[in-house]
Amino acid sequence: MKFFVDTADVDAIRELHELGMVDGVTTNPSLIMKSGRDIKEVTKEICDMVPGPVSAETVALDAEGMIAEGRELAKIADNITIKVPLTWAGLQACKVLSGEGRMVNVTLCFSANQALLAAKAGATFISPFVGRLDDINIDGMDLIAEIRQIYDNYDFSTEILTASIRSANHMKEAALIGADVATAPPNVIKAMANHVLTDKGLDAFMADWAKTGQSIV
């Protein structure tokens, strides 16, 4: 499973990238706002750092506007993935942009039917939002499993990009189901390393080592 980092914080991306934990990056208007930076400037910096797909989102609501914005965003770097919403206009834009050979990430997916339409429209990635489904008492991972089955049934090339990830458990469940990609905030990816028994074992080792009075270097 590929790890995308869901942030526009270049320092956080750099830390994870140096460890080999970044296969791509996803951004959205809210993350650009939090960065406090110009969308083209910060996106270019991220693209220069990360060779994998970097999602930059359109903000127009009509297909013509999304296509124009997508083409403009694609000028930033060769690894730009144009992000469009899963609306009828977004599907129209996806069809045109993917037909031009551009990577397209169709976002804000909340049903298997939507994911099926996105695949038919030529999406490179589909982004189901599991955390937001969990928020309304619907198991978001059930959606990932449904999309996985449908895409496997018909050999769609669209990659499942699990989004709105809130926890390390979400990462594990996405991997178990067979999601192609999981995009998560930096703190969630780092939290995957944590375990109470690791901490407890390390404390015991350190206590015993101190009793030896030895030094390795």
Structure keywords:
217 residues, alpha/beta, eight-stranded parallel beta barrel, 11 helices, 8 strands, globular
Walk me through what this model shows.
- With 217 residues, this protein is of the alpha/beta class.
- Helices cover 53% and strands 17% of the residues.
- The protein has 11 helices and 8 strands.
- Strands 1-2-3-4-5-6-7-8 form an 8-stranded parallel beta barrel, surrounded by 6 helices.
- Helix 4 crosses helix 5 and helix 6 runs parallel beside helix 8 (140-154).
- It starts with a strand and ends in a 5-residue tail after the last helix.
- The model has no long low-confidence stretch (mean pLDDT 97).
Explain the layout of strands and helices.
Layout: E1 2-6, H1 10-18, E2 24-26, H2 29-35, H3 39-49, E3 54-57, H4 63-74, E4 80-85, H5 88-99, E5 103-109, H6 112-120, E6 125-128, H7 130-135, H8 140-154, E7 159-162, H9 168-177, E8 181-184, H10 186-191, H11 196-212
Helix pairs in contact: 1-3, 4-5, 6-8, 8-9
Structural Rg: 20 Å
Structural class: alpha/beta
Largest sheet: 8 strands, parallel, barrel
**So how many helices?**
11
Unreliable segments of 5+ consecutive residues: none
State mean pLDDT (0 to 100 scale). 97
Q: DSSP strand (E) fraction? A: 15-25%
According to DSSP, the number of beta strands is 8
Could you state the order of secondary-structure elements as H and E?
Answer: EHEHHEHEHEHEHHEHEHH
The helix content is 40-55%
Q: How far is it from the N-terminal to the C-terminal residue, by CA?
A: 38 Å
Can you list the strand order of the major beta sheet? 1-2-3-4-5-6-7-8
**Structural shape:** globular
